[in-house]
Design brief:
This protein is of the alpha/beta class. The protein has helices spanning about 140-145, 185-195, 235-245, 255-265, 305-315, 315-325; strands spanning about 25-30, 40, 55-60, 60-65, 65-70, 80-85, 90-95, 105-110, 115-120, 125-135, 170-175, 200-205, 225-230, 250, 275-280, 295, 340.
């Protein structure tokens, strides 16, 4: 299967640069995964398409303000640091720019010395292991000094950093937001609960690999990045109960989907308490074991994300939906509109 099969024409002006003032006012395309039929609604109308006994599964990861601007302590040269993954204690795997200025032993100062980092190891492609030094609580200092690591296709500055967080974000650890969840408000979630819809939370910490392009010609030769996930015992029991009583399990976003499918695939379609690293790659031909429907945003051409939604709804149906979205001027990517595949 060739990667080019998942290409489509996307005018650059349809890439949403800023979030809408009202999260629920984004557009919502309803896609019937069996017939390919489409409906055009607003996101708040999702309430009409969900039945009592169904379950939304939301990823409660919280994006770290992981981009830091500092100076080399000896020369004052500007250094940009992007936190990727915490290692042991205060050591982090990072990307630094310009990497050639940061050698082993280099000390970088942030916020006039409020936070310092020593390079303890050089990695490939601008990667560095930094050992941070500070007084107080690291995450509080990060909130004070850091910036949201917005995706590379967003060029405008974000005035309110909370708009790149879901309203239910809780577990710190992501380098990017699970953007399908950005459309929900507390009020909409409360209304769904009152209707009898179950709301469940899982955690998958989104890595920067989510933006990595597919650089091979054949889909099955692409290697997925690994991301950490967690599902607790109570949520596993709820999901098994929903399925047992005939309710639908609807994942919110590709991250929730990958987590649920990782766990269900390993346990004959059952959900069990588990945590670990997943590099599951879902593309057409995959048989879903964990979910019945999905809410998602509109993704990049030839990306692993459009391959995932094509596995659920069919490649032809998805490409038709995307062509329609372009024609109808839907907004694309992180701050864009949404799709409900049912």
């Amino acid at each position: 299967m060739k990667v080019d099969l998942f290409d489509f024409y996307l005018p650059e002006e349809l890439i949403a640069q800023t979030p809408l003032e009202d999260r629920t006012s984004s557009r919502l395309m309803i896609v019937n995964k069996e017939t390919g039929d489409l409906e055009h609604r607003k996101f708040k109308d999702i309430y009409e398409y969900i039945n009592p006994g169904d379950c939304f599964v939301l990823n409660d990861t919280r994006v770290l303000p992981a981009r830091l601007h500092g100076e080399k302590e000896d020369t004052g040269a500007h250094i940009e640091v992007l936190l990727l993954k915490q290692q042991k204690d205060d050591k982090w795997e990072t990307l630094v720019k310009p990497a050639k200025r940061v050698k082993e032993g280099t000390v970088i100062s942030f916020g006039d010395g409020t936070l310092k980092a020593v390079c303890v190891k050089e990695l490939e492609h601008g990667g560095r292991i930094l050992d941070f030094q500070y007084e107080g609580i690291f995450y509080e200092i990060l909130d004070q000094l850091g910036e949201m690591p917005l995706p590379p296709y967003i060029k405008e500055k974000l005035d309110d950093q909370d708009r790149y967080q879901t309203v239910y974000a809780k577990e710190r650890g992501s380098a990017a937001a699970p953007t399908a969840g950005l459309h929900f408000t507390t009020e909409l979630l409360d209304a769904l609960k009152k209707k009898g819809v179950h709301i469940a939370f899982i955690t998958l910490h989104v890595g920067l690999g989510t933006f990595r392009p597919v650089n091979v010609e054949d889909v099955d030769k692409h290697e997925m990045h690994a991301e950490f996930y967690q599902l607790n015992k109570e949520t596993a029991a709820l999901l098994n109960s929903v399925r047992g009583q005939g309710g639908r399990i609807i994942s919110v976003g590709t991250t929730s989907t990958r987590t649920l499918e990782t766990i269900a695939s390993a346990n004959n379609g059952e959900f069990v308490e588990s945590s670990g690293w997943t590099s599951i790659f879902i593309y057409p031909g995959y048989e879903f074991k964990g979910i019945d429907g999905m809410i998602t945003n509109f993704h990049l051409p030839k990306s692993t994300l459009i391959m995932l939604v094509s596995a659920l709804a069919g490649r032809e149906n998805i490409l038709h939906a995307y062509e329609t979205a372009v024609k109808e001027r839907y907004r694309f990517f992180s701050f864009g509109d949404a799709m409900f595949i049912q």
